[in-house]
Design a protein that fits this description.
Layout (H helix, E strand, L loop, with lengths): L2 H14 L2 H7 E8 L9 E3 L1 H15 E14 L2 E12 L5 E13 L2 E9 L2 H7 L1
Parallel strand pairs: 1-6
Antiparallel strand pairs: 1-2, 3-4, 4-5, 5-6
Helix pairs in contact: 1-2
């Protein structure tokens, strides 16, 4: 499978919370790096750490949490994705929209590395 299709399938699986499919698309020893200041974010290692942190954290902090993609920019085994997160904070009831850039590296039709850049200010403001 081409790297861009792997990443498109990844977003579909995350949206559906399809853990078996996510395990097919993400390498067991993945490096998953969330940017500093991202609520609940950290550098994660391994598929179990990623799934526990991503599927649990985002949806427990934010009602209607979504990662909407606007553009996919493939280059060899690397795919850059532009988009925005949105949701309503479960504690404050405030909504947010925060733009992101995701950089994925794919090998053997699996994600082996993820690096996130996000404007966390709207997220933090919604939490206050």
């Amino acid at each position: 499978m081409q790297p861009e299709q792997v990443i498109r399938d990844l977003y579909t699986a995350f949206k559906a919370k399809d853990e078996p499919r996510l395990r097919e698309l993400i390498a067991a020893d993945v490096e998953w790096n969330q940017c500093e200041g991202f609520p609940g974010g950290k550098n994660r290692r391994g598929i179990d750490d990623v799934l526990a942190g991503i599927l649990g954290s985002n949806h427990s902090l934010w009602e209607g949490f979504r990662a909407e993609t606007t553009e996919f920019l493939p280059s060899g085994d690397t795919v850059v994705v532009l988009g925005a997160y949105s949701g309503t904070h479960t504690g404050t009831g405030k909504s947010m929209r925060a733009v992101f850039t995701h950089v994925y590296r794919v090998a053997d039709s699996r994600v082996v590395r993820f690096d996130q850049v996000t404007d966390t200010a709207p997220m933090v403001a919604a939490m206050e």
